Each structure stands twice: as structure tokens, then as C-alpha cells.
TrEMBL record:
<dbReference type="InterPro" id="IPR027417">
    <property type="entry name" value="P-loop_NTPase"/>
</dbReference>
<dbReference type="GO" id="GO:0006817">
    <property type="term" value="P:phosphate ion transport"/>
</dbReference>
<feature type="domain" description="ABC transporter">
    <location>
        <begin position="5"/>
        <end position="215"/>
    </location>
</feature>
<dbReference type="InterPro" id="IPR017871">
    <property type="entry name" value="ABC_transporter-like_CS"/>
</dbReference>
<dbReference type="GO" id="GO:0005524">
    <property type="term" value="F:ATP binding"/>
</dbReference>
<keyword id="KW-0067">ATP-binding</keyword>
<protein>
    <submittedName>
        <fullName>ABC-type uncharacterized transport system, ATPase component</fullName>
    </submittedName>
</protein>
<keyword id="KW-0547">Nucleotide-binding</keyword>
<dbReference type="Pfam" id="PF00005">
    <property type="entry name" value="ABC_tran"/>
</dbReference>
<keyword id="KW-0592">Phosphate transport</keyword>
<dbReference type="GO" id="GO:0016887">
    <property type="term" value="F:ATP hydrolysis activity"/>
</dbReference>
<dbReference type="InterPro" id="IPR003593">
    <property type="entry name" value="AAA+_ATPase"/>
</dbReference>
<dbReference type="InterPro" id="IPR003439">
    <property type="entry name" value="ABC_transporter-like_ATP-bd"/>
</dbReference>
<keyword id="KW-0813">Transport</keyword>
Amino acid sequence: MDNVIEVKNLNYQVGQQKILKNINLQVPRDAYITFIGPSGSGKSTLMRIIASMLNATSGEVLFNGKNQSEYEPTHYRHKVSYAFQQPTLFGRTIKENLEFPYLVRRKEFDRSLVTQYLEMVNLNETYIDKSVNDVSGGEKQRIALLRNLIFPPEVLITDEVTTGLDTENKTIVRKLIDQFNKERNVTVLRVTHDDTEISEAHNTITIENGEIKNV
């Protein structure tokens, strides 16, 4: 089977506290895996290591068969994208946020394509020119997620991105992620405590006390 991510004998500790213990994991290409388990069990830490935001104490992460460290960091983060629980919009306007993926790739902003993306999450072209202070929390999360997806990554990591959203916004966000997984072949690694998301998940991995309990 073609694995996009492999984690081998991975450990992470801070001082004497062992947060992840001998994690071994294979993530097939195009998979949608939901990580569950108690708060503080190490789920988010593992996701941050896979996203190259933290360095493991020992062990390795392979992306497309190559060690994570062999990739130029910016290139790697274009391919393995991490969506935060608390969406952060920078600058003054929504355009600055949705233009950012183009700027870092030295490409010209495509307003018509961005409008299509906004419509996928029940927003419209007028949002491009809005102030970041004039959108709701749910709208911020949708826009922040689009920022991750305008140039679809190979792997999207979502760390409790629906926490605090109302039912309507949760549904919109889930639908968008599902669509990119099914239609754009984006591999999804999702951390959640949401009962509905867990009950609907087809592929779950439980992490407890820094260890994988099932695969």
C-alpha cells in the first residue's frame, strides 16, 4: 500500500515527562483518519511533529518515503498543512489572508478562483474586501481553512477545528474537508473530541497516555 506518511519509533519528551512513547503509524495516501483520546494524551503533539512544527526526541517521520528533515521546511509545509483550533487572521482584510498562499508561491492572486472557494463555504466575493474584524468566529474558521486549501496540500491536519463552532458552521467545515478528501485526494488527519464526528468516522486511532491503543 502507498503510504504518504510513516511514523517510526517516535518518542517525544519534555524534561522527564514522556509525552509520546514509541509511536509507529502508517497513513495510506487519500486516507481520512480521526485521532481520538483524552485531552493531554499526545494527539496534538503528534500532529505538530508530523506537520514539522515540533521536533521529535527520537524516531522519524517519512513523507512520501523520505525523511521529513530532507525537505526544505517551506516546501514541506506546502505539502503537509496544519489547520489550528483557533483561527488566526492577520493584516487588515480577508484578501490579505487569501492572497498569502499566492504570495509565498510567487503567483498572481486569482480573484475568480478564490470566489469559487468562498462559495464552497457559503460565503461570497464581497468577503474578499471585508475587514478581518467584520467576520464572525465561524466565518474566520472557514476563511482560515480556505487559506490552507487554496493550493491543496497532500496532507491536511485539522486539530479540533470545529471546537466552539455552532452546528451550521461545523457542518460547513466538515463538508469542505470531506470534499477535498474525496474529490482532491487530500489525505486528512483529524483530531477531535466532537461526539458526532467520532460517531461518523470510518477510521479512528486512539491515543492514550502517549501511546497508540489501536490501529
